[in-house]
Amino acid sequence: MASSELTSSQPTRPPRPNLAFRRLRGGRSPAEFAAAVRRAAREIGERVSCDARYVGRVEAGEIRCPNYAYERVFLHMFPGRTLTDLGFAPRSSVRGRRAHAAEDAPPVHLTGGGRGPDETEGAYEPYETPHPQDPEMYDDDEESDVLRRAFMTGGATVAAASLGPIGLAFDAAAAGRPVRRPGASDAYALEEAVRRIRLLDDRHGADGLYRRASQPLRAAYALLDAGATRQTTAERLHSGAGELAISVGWLAHDSGRFDDARSHYAEALATARMTGDDALEAHAFCNTAFLARDAGRPREAVRAAQAAQRVGRSLGSPRLMSLLALREAGGWAGLADRTACEQSLARAQALYERGPSEADPEWMSFYGEAELEGLEAQCWSTLGDWSRASRHARRAAQLQDPHFTRNIALYTAELADDLARGGRPDEAAAAGMRVLDLLDQVQSSRIQTMLAGTARVLLPHRRASGVSAFLERHASSPRPT
Predict the structure, then answer these.
(1) Under DSSP, is residue 358 helix (H, G, I), strand (E, B) or coil?
(2) Burial tier of 472 (Cβ tally within 10 Å: 0-12, 13-18, 19+)
(3) FRET label pair with 112: which of 243, 349, 468, 472, CA 20 to 30 Å apart?
(4) In angstroms, what CA-CA distances link 380 with 134, 275, 329, 384, 390?
(5) Does pTM top 0.70 for this prediction?
(6) Which of 283, 286, 281, 277 minimizes the C-alpha distance to 304?
């Protein structure tokens, strides 16, 4: 029986599903439709960070009217239609006390660098209009604004070849203050922080993000300690804090801080177990398996991947199970068990071919055919089959959506290393040059380490075409700090 502290005497009107928008999506998955939205935005010079969760929230009726940047993109995608035709409420009909100010003036709690480096001004103004009956969405408490700033002022400034500071700072002025009980707006801000971190990591890699992203994580657990008054809000906060812990753990993982990553993943796993959140638990085990593989603990990688599959079966997502099978394959490759690895790879491919589903987790928006190919390349590379590894790595780089700049660099670095170890130094050097070109935009210790390994393999082949130029450029390129 739920505690009385987690219930509300204030009933809320459930949102009305946006069936018109759902029809427009057609047979595409939410992630595929979100990718189409991002492409349409680029066509008209807008930059939005649409993902599967945003699409789901629109279709569920949680977003009654989009912000102006999304409005321009949607009207470009569906010419001749109005917002009403797309299933949204007229802007004038949904403006509340907070919403009115947010839509008619610059957002007051987005400060310096509140949008991503390529994102349109206004793309991160509040794009949901809450229902007037929801009192928690209209709380004017000062601490609430401080906590929202801690999550919502995300963003990075790309200056020259590196990421500038990210405004994910926890306001020091609030450090010693007691926190009021959080509401729906805080849960929303926490979910947006997770999206922001994932978006920036996709574009730029982890090195410039990790230290700053740990501050909102502390704020998230401060919200949990304060305790929400509603069961639904409490569940969202726990899920959001767990997902944020995984995101911060991944930033630590990708920047070579394995002990920190292990701690963050364990924190997420504990949160999942405490609340019975199977989706969060599967995600935490998935990342733990990947970390164990990279840290040289392949048997642990296999066990964690199998645990993720046990809990993940109930979620009804073949694509999730496909990714988890790939995590297991990586562990078997590390154990040099080629037969078990091939069996896991075959299972991953068969599950992937079942297609996307409504049950696919939002965090899996990165998992498409390119990632499938890239992870298989890593398995063959670990097994020493350089020819097969390079074939899959090349295909991964070719298939990757341009939005995922970091992954393009990663797959190309994998290709360079496989070609170098497979006795094709000239092709390896050309691929290595392409990675160096991308390092103006991406900061990832993982990619830097891979490229350094490739350079060592190519040292005896200086006279091969292009190798000397690659080695000289690599030696002069900046190293991560």
Answers:
(1) coil
(2) exposed
(3) 243
(4) 53, 38, 10, 6, 9
(5) no
(6) 286
CB-based contacts of 456: which residues, under 8 Å, 6+ apart? none
- The strand pairing partners of 163, in sequence order, are 158
> What 3-state class would DSSP assign to 185?
helix
User: Would you say residue 178 has pLDDT above 70?
Assistant: no
Tokens of 350: 């068969």
Quickly tell me which residue has 């990714």 as its tokens: 323
Q: In this structure, how many other beta carbons lie within 10 angstroms of the beta carbon of residue 325?
A: 25
Q: Which two tokens stand for residue 76?
A: 């470009």
- Both structure tokens of 173: 């002025």
* C-alpha atoms less than 13 angstroms from C-alpha of 40 in its C-beta half-sphere: 18
Beta bridge partners of 158: 163
Residues with Cβ < 8 Å from 90, sequence gap 6 or more? 65, 83, 84
Secondary structure element (H or E) that encloses residue 384, with its range:
none
pLDDT level of residue 329 (50, 70, 90 thresholds): very high
Locate 418 and state its tokens: 């496989």
Name the least confident of 211-220, 306-315, 386-395.
211-220
Tokens representing 151?
């999550």
